Amino acid sequence: MTIDFYYVPGSAPCRSVLLAAKVVGVDLNLKLTNLMAGEHLTPAFLKMNPQHTVPTLNDGGFYLWESRAILSYLADKYGKDDSLYPKDPKKRALVDQRLYFDIGTLYQRFGDYYYPIMFAKATGDPEKFKKIEESYNFLDKFLDGQDFVAGNNLTIADIAIISSVSTADILGFDVSKYHNVAKWYEKCKKIIPGYDELNHSGCLKFKEMYDNLTKK
Question: Where is the GST N-terminal domain (predicted)?
Fold first, then answer.
């Protein structure tokens, strides 16, 4: 059965789904979506996703959006075991907490600082930058004494968070100041299948867009 995936390569949430699909061994039928041309506002797209956002997944007529929900779905349905998204309630709750931390704190604070610069040509707000630094201090503490963000094996939380961290990194945020984060980051880049092809290449596209939009 074909799984259609509507995405833009520069988007961190979209890249996290590409990585998760690679890890679980699912082939996605990629549907590059031109947001500037309004392809996400067509009647066909709105029927799938009334919120008209990417990423959006169509798995044989089952429509799902929000990247972290898609990660959970792919791991549950297509994972060879439950290591990416444990069935044990406590282990799963910890993975969920890290996913919520990503969307509500780590990636949120990245956007709060960088997106006004990117889309409104605003000057960077130092207080918002401090909030990013605080979120990386939190992440650094999460990684104390363990190899991955939710324990000692790779989970979908690592896949979501590395998509956020790599996006900040490509814009020059100094990840190396956070010892545990930097060590984890380098490890994940090496062990996640397709990292360069699916994530780093998208980071470069995001950086290109950022540079074009912030030209003086």
Answer: 1-82
- For residues 74 and 88, what is the distance between their CA atoms, to the nearest angstrom? 17
Q: 3-78: which CATH architecture? A: 3-Layer(aba) Sandwich (3.40)
pLDDT per residue of the chain (216 residues) written in tens, 0 to 9: 689 999 999 999 999 999 999 999 999 999 999 999 999 999 999 999 999 999 999 999 999 999 999 999 999 999 999 999 999 999 999 999 999 999 999 999 999 999 999 999 999 999 999 999 999 999 999 999 999 999 999 999 999 999 999 999 999 999 999 999 999 999 999 999 999 999 999 999 999 999 999 987
DSSP 153: S
Quote the CA–CA distance of 188 and 111 in Å, as a whole number.
23
pTM, whole model, 2 decimals? 0.97
Copy the structure tokens of residue 111. Answer: 């956007």
Locate tokens 């360069």: which residue? 196
In CATH terms, the fold of domain 89-213 is: Glutathione S-transferase Yfyf (Class Pi); Chain A, domain 2 (1.20.1050)
SS3 state of residue 155: coil
Catalytic residues: 11
